[in-house]
Design brief:
heterodimer, A: 308 residues, alpha/beta, globular, B: 299 residues, Four Helix Bundle (Hemerythrin (Met), subunit A), Rossmann fold, 2 domains, five-stranded parallel sheet, two-stranded antiparallel ribbon, 12 helices, IF-2B-related (chain B), IF_2B-like_C (chain B)
Chain lengths: 308, 299
């Protein structure tokens, strides 16, 4: 499968289903790549998969695509350990890949079921930018007959917050169910924090220390929440767990901070605005994942169980 | 069959009696008694209930369990024991089904990637499942008996001579803990009386019978006395999933005072008090009692 075909499959996935997570689209594209691969050895497969993952990161440089790719590689290695015959191995891989994708599609519902009891009646929630998982959680809370109001940050530079409330299906449905939504400036987070009961954000990636990588501005919100003693909840699917351990903001690799086109064309990266930031685990109260409700320290346990 | 029907109605009578006792509870019942009663009741349900395979049994236990927990949501031991029994059933089923011993029951990323099937189906009937599960529950009951002693055995490592220990209210686990240490060491205990029921008085009387130097003080003096205390040892009603405690009123004050003075706080609790719930539904955890006992209506 050529690189162009791969990129086209990936883009098609994102186009056809706007609700799909970019990591899942990446894994689907890689599974298609695996099906059409005509190599005969595991080593060959692994190296062509690595190239494929690089190609995909050049299209969409987000952390999620990277973690999806790593997970897929790990999946290949684990399966290849069990079966030595290559063709049988490949069959099992494809079968398990399908099962994995099916399980993963249920993960948002699992998370919503875990998280909505934490939203009490009359709660005021603050959220940041656009997260499909957060939308699903709020939907589940409405289904369980809770009344609450939501503050959304405008989330520059792409005004994802605005997109959030103007998005056709979700926002209209939320409005129909009478959820009051207020858009606030990014700078107004400190001002609004005293009114808020809890902060609920999604994540693009969950790092080994239990911290998260998310849209720029999340760290600020977390610090304000800690200062005012408000719980800071993160909702993320388990395929977003990534093998990074940043110690500070500078440690996050540049390839995640900037969009793929900026990386290719820019002269001096330090003059570009970063799109993501790192929130340290001490600021996070709980993480809701499809593996259960985890404290930030439990995240490293999960990653160790998988990778070691 | 008259025998089975009789047993069935007797069973539901017993369940009803247990549920109404839970609901009514004016006197604070011993958590260990509640745990033991729950386990015996569940054992009876498994032995006499009508079920064919593990899935059916688990649904039966879940329904009864939900009824029991709904009667008194603040008694988390009931829910914990029901969950233990469900886990026992899953394990016994897994063993009979031929799955390996070390297979991870919990979800993990690893399991997500390597498992073959979508979900576990508990539908294969095994005749020996009933006996196995009942045996496992008997083991659990035996474990229950020994909890206080197992905790008390560790007392000598934590309490040293000439220490001042503070505690609050009356906890049988802490009483056993302190008594065990008193056999070899000499120390002082300050008990916060825990108004309005003043369980602290009973604790002080029992401790002083063992020749432990005990002082009773009012709850208001907790912060004032804390600077002279070496350790705080308390019991609790429940331990929640994030490590938080649901304990007698006044424990939060004690904990804040201890934190301010950097005094170590030790909690003694048996395993049936560990609950997988999070502290979110505030209203279902608090237990409210009639004000009659503090301010009688006649006055």
């Amino acid at each position: 499968m050529s690189t162009d075909d791969l990129i086209e499959t990936f883009r098609a996935q994102l186009r056809d289903d706007p609700d799909v997570a970019s990591a899942v689209a990446a894994i689907r594209a890689l599974l298609g790549f695996l099906r059409q691969d005509r190599g005969e050895t595991i080593q060959g497969l692994r190296s062509s998969l690595r190239d494929a993952i690089d190609t995909l990161s050049r299209v969409d440089s987000s952390v999620a695509v990277n973690s999806g790719g790593e997970l897929f590689l790990r999946f290949i290695s684990l399966t290849s350990l069990e079966y030595s015959d290559y063709s049988k191995c490949k069959e099992i891989m494809i079968e398990r890949g399908e099962i994995f994708l099916r399980k993963v599609s249920l993960s948002r519902n699992k998370i919503a079921k875990l998280c909505h009891p934490f939203i009490r009646d009359g709660a005021r929630i603050l959220t940041h930018a656009y997260s499909r998982v957060v939308l699903r959680v709020l939907e589940a809370a409405v289904e369980s007959k809770k009344r609450f109001s939501v503050y959304v940050t405008e989330s520059q530079p792409d005004q994802a917050g605005q997109v959030f409330i103007n998005l056709q299906k979700m926002a209209k449905a939320l409005r129909k169910l009478n959820i009051p939504v207020t858009v606030i400036l990014d700078a107004a987070v400190g001002y609004i924090m005293e009114k808020v009961d809890l902060v609920l954000v999604g994540a693009e990636g969950v790092v080994e220390s239990g911290g998260i990588i998310n849209k720029i501005g999340t760290n600020q919100i977390a610090v304000c929440a800690k200062a005012q003693n408000k719980p800071f909840y993160v909702v993320a699917e388990s395929f977003k767990f990534v093998r990074l351990f940043p110690l500070n903001q500078q440690d996050v690799p540049d390839k995640f901070k900037y969009k793929a086109d900026t990386l290719k064309t820019s002269q001096n990266l330090t003059e570009e605005h970063p799109w993501i930031d790192y929130t340290s685990p001490s600021l996070i109260t709980l993480l809701f994942t499809d593996l259960g409700v985890l404290t930030p320290s439990a995240v490293s346990d999960e990653l160790i169980k998988l990778y070691l | 069959m008259p025998g089975a029907a009789e047993r069935g109605s007797e069973l539901s009578e017993q369940i009803e009696a247990f549920v109404s006792r839970l609901r009514g509870g004016g006197q604070r019942p011993r958590s260990e008694d509640t745990a033991r009663q729950t386990l015996s009741l569940l054992r009876k349900i498994i032995a006499h209930g009508r079920w064919g395979w593990a899935g059916e049994l688990m649904d039966l236990i879940r329904t009864e369990g939900r009824r029991m927990t709904a009667a008194q949501p603040s008694e988390t031991t009931v829910g914990n024991m029901v969950r233990r029994v469900l886990k026992v059933i899953r394990e016994e089923y897994g063993r009979l089904h031929g799955r390996s011993e070390e297979s991870d029951q919990q979800d993990s990323l690893h399991k997500l990637l390597t498992s073959g099937g979508l979900s576990e189906d508990f539908s294969t009937p095994y005749p020996s499942l009933r006996a196995n599960v009942i045996e496992a529950i008997n083991e659990l009951l035996i474990e229950l008996e020994g909890t206080t002693d197992n905790i008390a055995m560790q007392a000598l490592e934590h309490i040293h001579s000439n220490e001042v220990i503070m505690t609050i209210g009356y906890s049988r686990t802490v009483e056993a803990f302190l008594k065990e240490a008193a056999r070899k060491r000499k120390f002082q205990v300050i008990v916060a009386e825990c108004a309005p029921f003043c369980q602290g008085h009973e604790m002080a009387v029992r401790l002083s019978k063992e020749n432990i130097e005990t002082t009773v003080m009012s709850d208001a003096a907790i912060f004032a006395v804390m600077s002279r205390v070496n350790k705080v040892i308390i019991g609790t009603k429940t331990i929640l999933a994030n490590g938080a405690l649901i304990a007698v009123s006044g424990t939060h004050t004690l904990a804040l005072a201890a934190k301010h003075h950097s005094t170590p706080l030790i909690v003694c609790a048996p395993m049936f008090k560990l609950s997988p719930q999070f502290p979110n539904e505030e209203d279902s955890f608090h237990k409210f009692v009639s004000p009659q006992e503090v301010l009688p209506f006649t006055e």
